[in-house]
Every structure is written in C-alpha cells, then in structure tokens.
Amino acid sequence: MITSPTSTTSRLDQGMAGRIGDTLRLVAEALPVQRRVLHAGDSVYQAGQPFKSLYIVNSGFFKMVNSSAEGREQLVGLHFRGDWLGLDGIADGRYACDAVAMDTGEIWSIRYDALLQAASQTPALLSMLHCAMSREIAREQQSVLSLCSLPAEARVAGFLRYWAETLADRGLRTDQITLRMTRAEIGNYLGMTLETVSRALSRLARGDVIRFAEKSRRDICIPQVEALTRFMQGDLGTPATPLH
Amino acid sequence: MITSPTSTTSRLDQGMAGRIGDTLRLVAEALPVQRRVLHAGDSVYQAGQPFKSLYIVNSGFFKMVNSSAEGREQLVGLHFRGDWLGLDGIADGRYACDAVAMDTGEIWSIRYDALLQAASQTPALLSMLHCAMSREIAREQQSVLSLCSLPAEARVAGFLRYWAETLADRGLRTDQITLRMTRAEIGNYLGMTLETVSRALSRLARGDVIRFAEKSRRDICIPQVEALTRFMQGDLGTPATPLH
DNA sequence: CGAAAGATTGAGATATTTCAACTGCGGTGG
DNA sequence: CCACCGCAGTTGAAATATCTCAATCTTTCG
Fold first, then answer.
1. Residues B133, A241: C-beta atoms closer than 8 Å
2. What torsion, rounded to 10 degrees, do the Cα atoms B19, B21, B26, B32 define?
3. What's the pLDDT tens digit per position in A155-174?
4. Which nucleotides in chain D have some atom under 7 angstroms from a protein Cβ?
5. Any idea what the CATH number is for the domain that residue B70 is in?
6. Which nucleotide's C1' sits nearest to the alpha carbon of B150?
7. Is the pLDDT of residue A241 over 80?
8. Are A46 and A110 contained in the same domain?
C-alpha cells in the first residue's frame, strides 16, 4: 500500500505527502522509537489498558473500535500512514478504544513521557503532536456531520471520497482504490447495515459514479472524485433538524 | 449556572470540579488572558477565521456549529465551564466551526503562541492542553458511538445523561436540569427531527424516567441518572452492523 | 394582549432495517 | 480433483423506525 510511487495526483498534494514523511523522519531521529509489525486482527492496544505510549502508523491501516459496556462494537475511526493512535488515552490514563490492524503494517510506539521531554528540545515535535490531535478532532466533527445530516447513500459516497483523499494525501493513486474492509465493517462505521452499504454501492455503480473491478468487489474504480461530491450534494439530504 | 454551590453530588466529583477550577486558576495566573462576555447568539469565532487563539469557557455554555458548504448547519459539540474551544483550528490554521454562545457567559481567550511559550516554563499548562484535546477526542468518539448504534429514544436518554454528568462534574445538582436548547437544537445535535425529540421526551416522562417541571418544559427532573442508563440498555438497539 | 416562536401530538409517507434466498469464491479434506 | 462448507456479497420483499406534514396548544416577549 505504501510502496506505490507518486502518481496522478497534483503537485499540491506533495505538500501533504511530504509532511507525513517529514513527521516520521523527525520522530525517528529525535526519539527512541520501538517498531512493531502487526498482522490483520492484531491489536496495538486495548481499551482500558493504562496509557503510556502513543503510536504512529508507518504502514498498513488500523481501526479504532469502541466496545460499549453492553457488548456492542463500534468502529469509530480509521488510521493510515502518518496518523497517531492512542491520543484518546492521555486524558484519563487509559485507552478508550481497541486499536486493531486491518492488514499487515508497522507501528511505531513512543513513550508519552519521552515525547514530552524531547519536545522541550525540539518544539517541532510538539507542533506535530498538536496538529495530529487537532486534525483528529476536526475529522471526528466531520464524521458527526455526515452521520447526522446525510442519508445512507450519501454517507457511502462520502466515505469513498474520504478514502480517496486519504490516499491522495499520501501520494498514492486514487482512481483505483481497494477497500480492505467488509461491507459489515463499512456499515458499522457509517451507522447502517451491510445490506444498505451493498445497495448504495450498487446504485453508485449503476449511476457510473464508481465502477467495480473485474474481480473482487472491494476494488473500486473512481473515475473522478468530484462526481462523488456532486452525488452527495445532489442527494440533497436534510434529515437532521435545521438549526433555525 | 456556575454560581450554584456544590450539592447532592458525591465527594468523588469534587475531583473533577476541583480540576476545572484549578485549570482556570492556573491559566489565569500563568498567562495573559483576555476576558470577554458574550450573550446568546454571539459567536466566539467563526469557521474559516485564521487561528490565533484558544478559548476557555469560564461561564455560560457554547455550541460548535459546522456549516457544510451546501448550507446545512450541524451542531457538533457542546461546551461548558472549563472546556477549551478552538482546538480544531490548530491543524490547518483556521477554525473549522462557528463557536456560538447559547447563553450569557464569559470566555477567556489565550494566544496559542503565548500558551506554548508559557508552557515551556509551566509544564502543567501543556498537560492541561493535552488533556483537553484528548478528552475532546474521546468525547466525540462517544458521540459517534451513540449516533451509530442507538435508536432515537436511547440517544435522547444518553443526551440527558451526558448533560447530567456534565453538571455533576462541575459540582452542580443534577436532579433538576434546565436544557437551554430548543427541541430543534437537540434534534440537530442528535441526528433526528425535533418531533422525534419531543416524542422521546414524552415517552421518557410517561415511563417516569424523567419528569417535566411545572412550567417550561425545558426544566427536566431526573430522579435517578441510572434510570436513564438502564433505559438506554433496555432499549437494546443494534441498528448498526455488528462487526463480526 | 397579541404575535411569534417553541412544543406536542397524530396520521400518512418514506428511508432503512430485517429476514431470507441466492451467488460466487476460496479453502479443505476425502 | 472435486465436493463441500463457510464467508462475503447481492438482491428482493415485508417490517419498522423515523420523518414529514399538519393541527393544536403553550410560552415568551414586545
């Protein structure tokens, strides 16, 4: 996933891809980093464990699963190369979610106390941490917006766009993406059933907004990302109450 | 709202109420703080404005409104005494939402650069900032969980419980709460229509989980918070797809 | 007091879920 | 090698939660 070279994305995206690379480089040279390779299903940490370290995704991708007391499992976030994990654990000293690998990948772990100490020498480290947290907050706000105000099909379109943007940010090609998630996982993340996800994808394909690859209906071709955006708006949804 | 003395809440809550007071005190003495009084409808800052400062709620309460490009307005967060605002602006240098007062209240503003500088002298400041961001992330994860996995009525119950806990954390009484929001605002926040909110509240009242005050149906009496929790579970909802 | 905004409630419309049948695919073991 | 099983996905039809629309009532405020 991370091995692919830069591609059809515009030169502007280099900024983002560059930032991610710089982050990893800076962390690696300013701090003692412990690297660990995980396989699909392995967990980086589990909800409730005492918080000591933050983690950075070097490769692969990861899901954050919040298991409520009553046993329901909710996928509350996805994380890719350059993303930080475990930020939700700082506040009360325990991680709030399970972080689980969805594919083979490498995780770097950094002790939080070591990070703070190093940050006093290298302010850029602190800056990066704050940006990561801030981005996470803004991203989750987007999730809430989408969950509250878009009908199911538009949420699926938004999800695909999000995935494509994520790849673009990392300098990867976005015209052909491979969702490494089952329909059930996508549905769980988007607050709908797997059947609804399936139907939404089928309709997007019928409308030629996306196309399925020959084999494996997890490979999705997105000729133009703007088509997804247009679709989300065209599906003019106002299910949530307008504010005034 | 903030003036009420400690009350029926247990001694354990003092920790949280104390933390909030300590936070405000520490910030005030370690930093140049600019105080501003706002009235209902006034905005602390608006989406898109260049990020320079963070804000702390000293009194009153505030909503974060994310206005999507297409003009839909979504309430993505509520903030009370001791909460930090503007954290979503750090990452890309602009605030992502409007922050709007829902009542008369006082906001403290702190320049981000000044905060970072002061933090190098006073590590506790940094700690507080990180806790605030981490708490915000964890809180939003809860929102997503609730939106995805609970039916409407349970979300309303969860909302009331959240509000009660927020008051408890601040050392205020929780048996009698005043929602300073219209049904439309609550519905917008919870991803449902105002009618559904109204019906849910009516049913909660009919089931004696809550009680309305004599006048003003915004004053709600919550005899026991656990009843809300029990109700949320009893309303055993699994609308979102189970993960496996 | 009267107007405007907020809230409640009912009944029909609709999006999404649920349940069920069917397909394709990959592995596994006889 | 093939039969078989289980998992992922698709699709249809019925069930249901929520929304929409509309009427009515209450509260607030100038």
1. no
2. 140
3. 999 999 999 999 999 999 99
4. 8-13, 17-22, 27-28
5. 2.60.120.10
6. D17
7. no
8. yes
